[in-house]
Amino acid sequence: MRMNITLARWLIRLGAQIQSAALMVMSPDDLIEFNRRKYAKLKNVIGWGRGDIVAAGLYPEEKKLLKRIPFRTGRMLLLGLGGGREAVPFAKMGFEVTGIDFVPAMIKQAKALAARHGVSINGVVQSLDALDLPADTYDIAWLSVAMYSCIPTRERRIRMLRRVRDSLKPGAYFAVQFHWDISRKHSRRGETLRKLITWLTFGNRSYEPGDMLWGNAEFLHAFSSKEELLKEFAASGLQVVWLNIPRDADIRGEALLQKEGYPSHCPAHDRRIKNQAR
In sequence order, what are the residues at sequence separation of 6 or more whose Cβ sits closer than 8 angstroms to the Cβ of residue 25? Predict the structure, then answer.
């Protein structure tokens, strides 16, 4: 077991007053592994494949996001396959689904679940921060339940966006959900203390204000600035088609990004081809 992860768990147990130190002793690689170990636990693998969760299908905000995409067929890259809650309804709609997850047991469970529902899906074991994808392959990429915020560091999030962009066909879409929280306060003293702990433990030197351990169990980066999001999206080379910044008590925002070009399923593309043929 990695020593820094062990130290982080020990700090969590000491109490709320120093729990933030647990975040600081883990490097970005440690944070990825911290999240993976959570989801790899048997109870979580079983939990994400529970009948009631799968039966719920797409959440209302996910259905609204899907409606903004002008087609319902094609190849879909589903980032964060989990137990199959999203994969099964997408496959039933007619999408050819390839799911990515860093827990092999999740993929095995999701594929078995899909088979029980009369559909099939593909599964690939990869981490979101280290994707290796075929170029110009997918019509839609999908990353929901605020999983964009599970990737530590701006650099790694942008790298993920660029690799997804390269895997998309011209004109294809990338639906993204992120964690939003403007209530988090970042005092100068607190930030100084966090940085000191980082340097003393050779930990998370890539720490960014907004980083946290959600429920002391999972890394999340909470966005609180529209400009911060737009800069990350712009650095990927993807165009922002639509952006929803949460209001009031909502903590989940959405974005719809698009790769330049005309998708083969786009009505505007079809009309253009017909006009050129005349």
Answer: 4, 7, 8, 11, 197, 198, 201, 203, 204
